[in-house]
Amino acid sequence: LFRSARKVLPQGRPLAARGHRVTGIDFSERSLARARRTCPGVRLVLADLFDLDVVRNRSFDLVTLAYVLHGLPEALRPVVLGHAARISRGHVLLLDYAGRGPWYVRLIEFLEGPHYPSFTARPASDLLGAAGLTVVAHGTTSATGGYWLAHVSASAMPPSGRQLPRLGGVT
Predict the structure, then answer these.
(1) Alpha carbons 167 and 111: distance in angstroms, whole number
(2) Residues near 85 by Cβ (< 8 Å), separated by ≥ 6?
(3) Helix, strand, or coil here: 42?
(4) Pick from 1, 95, 101, 126: CA 20 to 30 A from residue 140's CA?
(5) How far apart are CA 33 and CA 54, in angstroms?
(6) Looking at the DSSP assignment, which residues form a beta bridge with residue 146?
(7) pTM greater than 0.85 (yes/no)
(8) Are 77 and 115 in contact (CB under 8 A)?
(9) Closest Cα partner for 97 from 144, 29, 53?
């Protein structure tokens, strides 16, 4: 599962080419149209983070969140990670900033919104741990980026009959 069809290119296409079933989710029909042209064999769904409650528990072997969390308010990050853990049968892969970037990255993130500084101030492994995810591997992807592969523990699943909070209405 990939949150953004734009991210299917670097992440999902190689998996689909090897015969894995890949699902990309994006809120932009335009991004999905581009992905349909460039990613044959990838199932694409028009939805967003506010619609993840329609995805069944344990639907995917691996859930990837690529450069999503840094753009969200602090209060939403654990909720999104909780949904990622809920829909994963095994692992969640987080790709995002691993620390404060150079001035031009900070400028771009400032223009995009106010949430980047609070994301980079806290280790991502702490955020994953608070969501009941156990980091099993981590490293850097670039001068400013990193990855965290986390195992979904039983405590990450909500008890039967209890729903995770909905995301709507929080800004």
Answers:
(1) 23
(2) 63, 92, 131, 132, 133, 152, 156, 157
(3) strand
(4) 1
(5) 22
(6) 96, 140
(7) no
(8) no
(9) 144
Q: How do beta strands 133-140 and 145-152 pair?
A: antiparallel
| Amino acid making up residue 155 | S
In tens, the pLDDT along 46-64 reads 887 766 777 889 999 999 9
Give residue 98's identity as a one-letter amino acid code: A
Which tokens is 140 given? 């850097």
pLDDT digits (tens, 9 = 90+) for 116-151: 899 999 899 999 999 999 999 999 999 899 999 999
What's the one-letter identity of residue 20? H
One-letter amino acid identity for 162? R
Q: Identify the burial level of 21 via C-beta atoms within 10 angstroms of its C-beta, where 0-12 means exposed, 13-18 middle and 19 or more buried.
A: exposed
Q: How far apart are the first and last CA of the chain?
A: 24
Exposure b/e, 91-100, CB count within 10 A at least 16 = b: bbbbbbbbee
Please tell me the total number of residues recorded for the chain in this structure: 171
CB 92 within 8 A of CB 52: no
**Residue 121, burial from CB neighbour count under 10 angstroms (0-12, 13-18, 19+):** exposed
Residue where the block lists tokens 């969390």: 69
